[in-house]
Amino acid sequence: MFDDGHTGLAQVRSMDGAVADTPAGETAFAHRDRAFALSAVIRPRSGDRAAEAARAWDEVGDDAVYLSFETHDQDAALTRAFPPATLERLRQVKRAYDPDNVFHGNFTVAPAV
User: Fold this and answer.
1) What pTM did the predictor assign?
2) How many C-alpha atoms does 73 have within 13 Å on its Cβ side?
3) Which among 53, 85, 91, 93 counts the fewest CB atoms within 10 Å?
């Protein structure tokens, strides 16, 4: 994947320091126990290569994603970004402050029912 010219950018970011010092339940970003965050910009030259590159990059990662780095709107990404307790807390916030789901762009967290 990295040697075929399809990867335009790859980053490794440290998740130590203040990121690790903040308890996971304090914010929507719960994956504070990871040592590093990996991200890549993949520029496949065809549809088949796009799917192959995305699968290869997913295999590098684990069950945690940071939605600001995602470029698709798959609902499955929500459960990778937010552990169950965090997602439920966000849904409760949506119910209280945005019950009509006005802010529904990008990755929508539906209000709790």
Assistant:
1) 0.69
2) 6
3) 85
> What digits encode the pLDDT tens for the residues 15-57?
888 888 988 888 888 888 888 888 777 666 666 666 776 677 6
Structure tokens at 83: 């552990």
Question: DSSP code of 34?
Answer: -
Cβ atoms 68, 32 nearer than 8 A: no
Q: What is the 3-state secondary structure (H, E, C) of 63-108?
A: CCCCHHHCCCCCCHHHHHHCCHHHHHHHHHHHHHHCCCCCCCCCCC
CA 19, CA 16: separation in Å to the nearest integer?
6
pLDDT in tens, 73-108: 567 778 888 889 999 999 999 999 999 999 887 778
Cα 108 from chain centre: 12
Dihedral angle sign, alpha carbons of residues 92, 66, 62, 19 = negative
3-state secondary structure of 47: helix
